[in-house]
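Anyone opening a protein record will find just a pair of labelled lines. A complete record is shown below as an example.
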Amino acid sequence: MSRAFTPPDTMTKADIKNVADVRRAVWTGGFTGLGSGLLFGFCFHSSLVPLAKVLKIDLKVKGPDLMTASSKEIGGVTGFGKALVASARPKSLNHRFLFTFFFGAIWSFVGASTAGKNTKHLMQDVYLRGSDQEMMTEYQKINGPGTEDTQAHTQELQNITGYQNLVKESRKQNR
């Protein structure tokens, strides 16, 4: 049985809900990316045929494409573009599957990663709950946590109260 159904006792109901929300967001982002990537890959491959007409590449003549060409035959960015367009020959279903599934896989990964990054703030309490050490940087370990901030804050409060006292005294004298 999955550990998702038996969470540890240290987790509250809110933590369990947060973990489930993050998990759901990652899965949803992955499948959304997969669907849009498959659609984009199919449309991209289908758009190569009109692009071949614009670039005046004859798709009926057998020439170098991405699968069969060597690096010398392709020769630079222009040659790569022509070989990419030549991959869209009318009977090249293997290339259509390649483009479709390649973009589906890449976009699925990007969608899941983005969803995870966008919802990782919900996991902060869960990560810190079971830790027995305080999370401090090396600088905080050396100087103590917040000593400079506390001293500056105390000094600022003293200045404010001193100023307020001066204002009160000057108002009393003006009456």
Summary: Residues 13-54 form the longest helix (42 residues). Helices lie at 13-54, 71-74, 76-86, 93-119, 124-129, 138-143, 147-174. The radius of gyration is 31 Å. Residues 139-175 form one domain.
